[in-house]
Amino acid sequence: MSAVQGHYDPAFKAVRQAFEHNFAERGEVGASVCIQDSKGRAVVDLWGGTHTDGQTPWTRDTLSIVFSCTKAATALCAHLLIERGLLNPDARVTDYWPEFGAHGKDQTTVRDMLGHRSGVPALRAPVDAGGFLDFDYTAKRLAEEVPFWEPGTAHGYHMVTFGWTVGELVRRVSGKPLGEFFRDEIAGPSGLDFHIGLPKSEFSRVSKLQLFQPHPNDTPSEFVKAMMNDPTGVQALAFANNGGWFFDAPDSWQAELGGAGGISNARGLAGMFGTTLGDTALFSPARIEAMRTPVSEGDDLTLCIPTRFGEGFMLSIDNRNLPGEGNSAVMGDGAFGHVGMGGSLGFADPNAGFSFGYSMNKMGGGILLNDRGQSLVDAAYACI
What gap in Å lies between CA 159 and CA 161, rounded to an integer? Predict the structure, then answer.
């Protein structure tokens, strides 16, 4: 591997040590980690390793897919519209998107959408080839879908569909495509290297991912068991009914996949969550409280584990009692953020006064964190 590069405040030496340990002992290939204080100063900004070809160095500006961390970007767009009085979390979705009310979804609220309670974590009928790359097509399909449960009565992780359930609200209210709104209103003004729809000019900076390879002795999660046992169930449909979408291809990099297609690095993730901290925050204290106040807790009808969500954000999820990896994402009380499949993470902790980002190109097992990312989070809190 190439040497770990970047800088860190000496008070955060333990984070650098944990980052180096991931390469030496946990098989990290290429990765970055960044921590910013409440004034936006990077107290940790490190990167190292290589692209998955084993040759190309991971540099300061290397990018990779951060999967569901993108949900946080989409949620921030919605919260900005709420802040401006253009979107009401207590209003019915049909006030903004009338077609969504089909098949008993007419009582669904905006908060239900943000809290994974809208009942459409998947589509039942096969998605057309390339359908996930067509924003209009998938939004229309979700509006027409019969809910898997009565909206508002339970929650289940909207694994990819969140990008349209919330993203279409952003588009309807703002009049701009999701990626454009995020770029114009959040990423651009804040100088964030985070993209929902990556320009071709930036393709050369992307490190492709190394897929997770399960060991024969691994204990399958309840999600995986359900997915394998019932191809018509919500788990299999949420994961696989996607029109042949392959996330690590240029057409996907360009698409506006607000639930799972964002491309960034640790600096972009920490900076994005930094927009919720300090005197220069883009959001009021009341809006930040909404982001980190639980609206959905308990058994997740999609992931088959207990999960916790605020309005659009994952909260600390501690399922370390369950076998296997990828069931937990343990953060501080009052922290809010989002994990990306395979192990990327961004979050803010207003109580502790910092934001955090971690991105990598070697995917771990499960939907949530693995030991590499969790060790960095633990080290950060030990330093704080």
Answer: 6
Domain that holds residue 320: 5-73+180-383
3-state secondary structure of 317: strand
* Cβ atoms 321, 337 nearer than 8 A: no
> Would residue 83 count as lying in a domain?
no
Each residue's pLDDT tens digit, 214-273:
888 888 899 999 999 999 999 999 999 999 999 999 999 999 999 999 999 999 999 999
Residue whose C-alpha is closest to residue 312's, from 344, 345, 343, 290: 290
* Domain count for the chain: 1
What tokens were used for 302?
Answer: 């999609």
pLDDT tens-digit profile of 157-194? 999 999 999 999 999 999 999 999 999 999 999 999 99
Say if 103 falls within a structural domain.
Answer: no
Per-residue tokens: 37: 């204080």
In a domain? residue 123:
no
CATH code where residue 237 lies:
3.40.710.10
Calpha distance 123→233 (Å, rounded): 10
Quick one: which of 122, 128, 156 has its CA closest to 237? 122
